[in-house]
Amino acid sequence: MNQWTELLKMDDIPQLGARVLRTDTMDIAVFRTAQDEIFALQDKCPHKGGPLSQGIVHDNTVTCPLHNWKIDLNSGEALAPDVGCSHRFPIKVENGVVYIQLAVESAVA
After folding, report:
1. Which of the residues 44, 54, 76, 84 could staple to 88 if both were Cys, CB 3.0 to 4.6 A apart?
2. Dist. CA 109–CA 94, nearest whole Å
3. Cα distance between residue 54 and residue 65, in whole Å
4. What pTM, to 2 d.p., does this model score?
5. Which residue positions in the chain have pLDDT lower than 50?
């Protein structure tokens, strides 16, 4: 069973910006849209590994700062014509506090 881990307060993430969670295995970018939606993706563009946390957030998309690839924050998928995906992490907000699920769910056979 996956557990939720408290990250930070939503107000600690600027609107149209990101904060980075550093783990032992990867960096995770936590984004906040203009509509106060929160998303979390591996902080690595699927194209050349650019830091998505340093990109420009617009609508529910982030544009990689290296080569302008647009990544959908809902799915982590690159928008056409580009192809690729950054791993997405489940996020929830309760009483202004952001929580993340770091464990990867295993498939049921």
Report:
1. 76
2. 32
3. 6
4. 0.89
5. 105-109
- Token pair recorded at residue 45: 């563009």
Peptide bond into 51 cis (omega under 30): no
d(CA 91, CA 69) in angstroms, rounded, equals: 23
Give pLDDT, residue 83.
95
We report the CATH number of the domain holding residue 24 as: 2.102.10.10
Question: Could you give the count of Cα atoms lying within 13 Å of 43 in the half-sphere of its Cβ?
Answer: 18
pLDDT of residue 102: 87
Q: Per the domain annotation, does 44 fall within a domain?
A: yes
d(CA 13, CA 98): 10
Give a yes or no: residue 105 inside a domain: no
Number of domains forming the structure of the chain:
1
47 within 8 A of 33, measured Cβ to Cβ: no
Per residue in 44-57, pLDDT (tens digit) is 999 999 999 999 99
| Residue-range definition of the domain harbouring residue 88 | 4-99
| Nearest CA among 27, 28, 29, 31 for reference residue 17 | 31
